[in-house]
Write a structure and sequence with these properties.
The protein has about 400 residues and is of the alpha+beta class. Helix content is about 35%, strand content about 20%. The strands form four sheets. Strands 1, 2, 7 and 8 form a four-stranded mixed sheet that branches. A four-stranded antiparallel sheet has the order 4-5-3-6, with helices on both faces. The N and C termini lie far apart (about 45 Å). About 45% of the residues are buried.
Length: about 400
């Protein structure tokens, strides 16, 4: 199915329709990631849609202070809040580590605006992180000379993730950081619905030596960039176990005590009672024992659930550029870095990579007996935010003529 400001018929003529809600639900899913380098297969978002975008202010500084879990939690919270506000709607989104991007039919702008405002308030009041949020009409993006095109990638039989191209999302992020289209935070009493958000996993160590966070953005859409992406994917595919997947195939285990952020998610206030703390700890211990031992509890199958965590993870994505969090050897990390340095010198892309020893997982689990739970992975010591900072530094160096 092809869309150009709305659905098209088999002869390439636009079908006049007031309802484009099913645009994303009707897109074909690709089940091989390399297919997503064929950018002619991405479909333009309808003109009446909006882009909701959010990011944590000074996320790099927060991560340097050891707050990567909190930063990742806020990024995932944006997606969870909007999903819970619109539970029947199928829409594309991307987790960015320190933020998120969502595309939604414009008819739901009020619901999205409310969810964003509430999440910004919760982020500041509960985690002391400022979250900037904005809603940008797709029409405005196109008037600025950019586009937003989308594809669906089936990470597993149960979960698909959106991929964006066209330059429009990157432009929207620039507007967000300039303060354009900004949405004010809600009052302190207005909390988002974060049901299903889970942050109880600890650092997941690299099996092959390095957890590599990669961002490679095209300087312009060109065949050389597509060839670079295909080369990087092939390098990972053939030289790393499970295409560089950063999670064990059997799935990770949560920490014994759940972690402070997970405890905060279960409280209506930051006040901590002894009884509440004991309840949190006992629940976390129970969860760890059940998942470790594989003990079936009612309809919950822990072995199946853990395996699906790995299958349903978003470790590779296309968000106006290639973004990956992969487990690889130091030698492969060196090879990837060398290719990206060469591509930057040739004017093919702007890139940033960051190495760390472990990955971090943030989850949305609306039901632990269904298979459609989704999992967002990032590096546990800087991740995408650190890679983006290095990319920005490279961009500034090029613009100023520095070596």
């Amino acid at each position: 199915m092809s869309y150009e400001n709305g659905p098209m018929d088999g002869n390439g003529h636009r079908i006049e329709s007031e309802n484009t809600d099913d645009f994303y639900a009707c897109l074909e899913c690709f089940d091989t990631f390399v297919q997503l380098t064929h950018f002619d297969q991405y479909q333009p978002l309808p003109d009446d849609w909006i882009i909701a975008i959010a990011d944590v202010v000074q996320s790099t500084r927060a991560i340097e202070a050891g707050r990567y879990k909190a930063v990742n939690t806020v990024g995932a919270a944006v997606l969870v809040a909007i999903t819970n506000a619109l539970p029947e709607l199928c829409f594309p989104y991307v987790f960015g580590g320190d933020g998120a991007t969502v595309a939604i039919p414009g008819a739901y702008a009020d619901e999205v605006r409310d969810a964003l405002a509430r999440t910004a308030a919760w982020s500041a009041d509960t985690l002391d992180l400022v979250l900037r949020v904005a809603i940008i009409p797709v029409r405005d993006i196109r008037k600025a000379g950019h586009d937003v095109r989308v594809a669906r990638y089936a990470a597993s039989r149960h979960v698909s993730y959106a991929m964006f191209t066209g330059g429009g999302v990157a432009w929207a992020e620039e507007q967000l950081k300039k303060g354009q289209y900004a949405i004010a935070r809600a009052s302190s009493q207005a909390e988002p619905d974060l049901s299903g958000l889970y942050c109880g996993f600890g650092p997941i160590p690299a099996a092959q030596g390095v957890i590599l966070s990669v961002i490679a953005m095209p300087v312009q859409e060109q065949r050389a960039y597509f060839a670079l992406v295909a080369d990087l994917l092939a390098l990972i595919e053939f030289s790393s176990h499970r295409s560089g997947h950063p999670l064990p195939e059997s799935g990770p285990l949560p920490t014994w005590f759940g972690g402070e952020i997970q405890k905060l998610l279960g409280r209506r206030s930051q006040a901590v009672s002894l009884l509440g703390a004991m309840t949190d700890a006992l629940n976390a211990i129970k969860t760890r024992i059940v998942l470790t031992a594989g003990i079936r509890v009612g309809q919950f199958e822990p072995v199946k659930y853990r395996r699906e965590i790995s299958e349903n993870t978003d470790f590779r994505k296309f968000d106006d550029g290639l973004k990956m969090t992969v487990d690889c050897s130091p030698e492969i990390a060196d090879a990837i870095e060398a290719r990206l340095v060469s591509a930057q010198l040739s004017g093919i892309c702007l890139a940033g990579i960051h190495r760390q020893k472990s990955a971090h997982l943030t989850c949305y689990v609306p039901s632990n007996i269904q298979s459609d739970h989704v999992h967002f992975v990032d590096g546990a010591d800087g991740g995408y935010a650190a890679a983006a900072a290095k990319l920005k530094a490279h961009k500034i160096a090029i613009m100023t003529g520095a070596n």
